[in-house]
Each structure stands twice: as structure tokens, then as C-alpha cells.
Design goal:
Elements lengths: L1 H11 L2 E5 L5 H11 L2 E4 L6 H7 L2 E5 L7 H15 L2 E5 L7 H13 L4 E4 L1 H9 L20 H15 L2 E4 L4 E4 L4 E4 L12 H15 L4 H21 L7 H14 L2 H7 L2 E3 L1
Parallel strand pairs: 1-2, 1-3, 3-4, 4-5, 5-6
Antiparallel strand pairs: 6-7, 7-8, 8-9
Amino acid sequence: MLEQCLKNVRAKAPLVHNITNYVTVNDVANILLACGGSPIMADDSKEVEEITTICGGLNINIGTLNQNSIPSMLLAGKKANELGHKVLLDPVGAGASTLRTETTFRLMKEVKFDVIRGNISEIKTLANGSGNTKGVDADVADAVTEENLKGAVTFIKTFAKQTKSVIAITGAIDLVSDESTCYVIRNGQREMSSITGTGCQLSGMITAYLVANPEHTLEAAAAAVCAMGLAGEIGYSRMKDGDGNATYRNRIIDAISNMTAEELGKGARYEIL
């Protein structure tokens, strides 16, 4: 199923509206093009509803949240819901400030999200207010490990049931779950955390996968997470002496661009709980 999700993205070239992080907006656009989708970046309240209308999916990322973008997020989200489009929320830094946390809760109250993707600290903040978000990074104490995996799976399934959304928690071990089924994904490379924007890129890519696989939200999200982690592994394996963060960033995008369904099928490392 994961391989077919990738094939569908390539075949359908889904158009994705992104209201996203100014720090990583270019990388989000590039990863969408690399995976087979097509990006539109628009965040002015005077056009977001119109732009959302012509797209199949909406990616809302609060990484560089401001008073101008909040109304745009709400307008676009409600329009996407009205049209039956796929919508993803990336609650970057939720828990780090009152504005981010309150805005995220308002978005979740007023907009129905097909997928909510964040690190464990951000998701814990949304679930119960007990997260210890350190900027946009997960607090070490919140990391999903082999030792606490069982509890983390129970937690994510409970939150998925509460929100009626697929929840994706990304980190050293990635979890993608609805209320009954959780993909435990072990793809990825530790060095990915040293590059700004891999999470933002993933949120854009998940949205493209959702649009291209409308009847398989859980599987589409899991496929995108596996593909991104695998790209991190492939990109790192191609690093040479003298290469650094900038090169690695490009190698990840290249790996997504060149990835085939067969490569994803062979390289995806996951179990279903």
C-alpha cells in the first residue's frame, strides 16, 4: 500500500496550498515538487480562500506565526473543510508561547484536520498541556524510545480518537496512527535534526500524499513519513568529505525526487501495532 501511495502522488501531481514557515518556505516548495506534487504559497487573507479552492489540500504550519497569518489560516481551513479538501496542521512550537498554544487550540476547534503532525512535545501539549516544548525541538525527556514505546502508542491512539485525526509524531522513532492502528517507523538519520526544515518539508509532503490517496489517510501519511526518513538515510549515504548541512539538505531533496515505489517498498522499516 505504501508503494501505491507514492505512485499515486507521481501520477496525480496534487496541488497543495501552503500557509507555512517563512524560514523553510522554499524547501517546502522544493520537496513538494520533488515528490511529484505542486506547491502554492499564499497567506494573505484576501486570497487564501480563492487559492484553497483551486488546490486539493491545505498545509497549515505555525512556525512563523503572526497576527496577519492567523486569520488567513482560519479562512483557508474553513474553506478547505467546506470543499472536502485534505487539511494538515503542523503546530510548530506549540507550548513554547501562549500565542502559539492558543492559536493551535483555536485552529483545532474551528477547523477539521485530517492529519496533525508534530514532535512529541508539541503533540503532548495539544493533548494534555503537559508537554515541555523547547522552541521547535522536542524536549529530550519527551523522546519516544524503545523503552516507552508501548505507552507512546497508547497515547497517540487515544489522541487520534479524541481529535478524529490521524496523528503523526516524528522523532528518532516515528509514530503515525489513527485510533486503532499505529505505524511504528524506524527510518531516518540522526543528522536530519541538524537541518532546519525537514519537519516542515514532511508536512508539505504528507499533504500531497493525502490528496493523491483520499481514501487512505493513515497509509498515505505513513508512506510520506517512511519516504522522508528513507531519503534522509539515502542522502546521508551519499555525503562526501567536505560536505555539510547545506549539501545534506539538497541530497535529501534529490533522494525524494529520485525515489521509486520499489525503493520505498524495500527501504521502509516499520511495524504495525
